[in-house]
Design a protein that fits this description.
Elements: E1 5-8, H1 14-25, E2 29-34, H2 41-50, E3 56-59, H3 65-78, E4 84-87, H4 102-130, E5 133-138, H5 141-145, H6 151-171, E6 176-183, H7 189-192, H8 196-203, H9 215-226, E7 237-240
Parallel strand pairs: 1-2, 1-4, 2-3, 4-5, 5-6, 6-7
């Protein structure tokens, strides 16, 4: 059987890298996108190749529709039709609303929410026509509970799930599932850069499991949602936050 093709946006980032490697381990053919401003993409690909991973990688400004369109056209021509889309790319520009300017708002909404439309639009019709597809939107615990200094980020991550629910209704009878996952604090490079005293005194006490999540745990959830066994799961927002926020 031909390997299913999985595209992960932001696949070179901390969480994205683990999603990419674990999906390759699960026998998917993995394509990653990275920001055109990324100066380390060649080194990343070389490092991954040294570990046995031969990824296809494409520069893409996911916040720009025409860039997304051109990127997916290349993927389809060079690799094949996308069966699984993981909308993982995201940025933060945290500040209180009083201090937030329009540029910080637009940048976060563009990369975190507009991207979901821009990328999904390019692959959705093909999934529907073939009668099989998986769309997984990586949101955040803060999209569910809110966070001080993150009106832009929380709005984008919450908006993701509205998109998920509506598209899930439209695609359900065609074998295409659409789901959101909402990670809490995960032990990525970005989170591990937080000073230890802040982690120990302010963050870990919020988490009943009393530790950070592992990127592999998030990747495992995504791999489940891609499986045949998950065909009955659609329109869901699955929390993976160690009990930090329950709905």
């Amino acid at each position: 059987m031909t390997k299913r093709i999985a595209l992960i946006t932001g696949g070179m980032g901390g969480l994205g890298e683990t999603i990419s490697t674990k999906m390759a381990d699960a026998d998917y053919r993995v394509v990653v996108t990275y920001s055109p401003s990324n100066k380390t993409s060649s080194q990343w690909l070389a490092d991954m190749k040294a570990k046995g991973y031969a990824f296809n990688a494409y520069a893409c400004d996911v916040a720009d529709y025409e860039s997304a369109k051109a990127c997916i056209a290349k993927v389809m021509a060079e690799v094949g039709p996308v069966d699984i889309l993981v909308n993982n790319a995201g940025i933060t520009k945290d500040t209180t609303f009083r201090k937030m300017d329009l540029a910080a708002w637009k940048a976060v909404i563009g990369t975190n929410l507009d991207s979901v439309f821009n990328m999904t639009k390019q692959v959705y019709d093909g999934m529907m026509d073939r009668g099989w597809g998986r769309i997984i939107n990586v949101s955040s615990v803060n999209g569910s509970k809110g966070a001080f200094g993150q009106t832009n980020y929380a709005a984008a991550k919450s908006g993701m799930h509205g998109f998920t629910k509506s598209l899930a209704l439209e695609s359900a009878r065609k074998g295409v599932t659409v789901n959101t996952i909402s990670p809490g604090y995960i032990g990525t490079k970005m989170v591990m850069a937080i000073p230890k005293e802040v982690l120990d005194s302010k963050i870990l006490p919020q988490i009943p499991i009393a530790r950070l999540g592992k990127p592999e745990e998030v990747a495992g959830l995504i791999i489940y949602l891609c499986s045949e066994e998950a065909a009955f799961v659609t329109g869901a927002n699955i929390a993976i936050n160690g009990g930090q926020h329950m709905q």
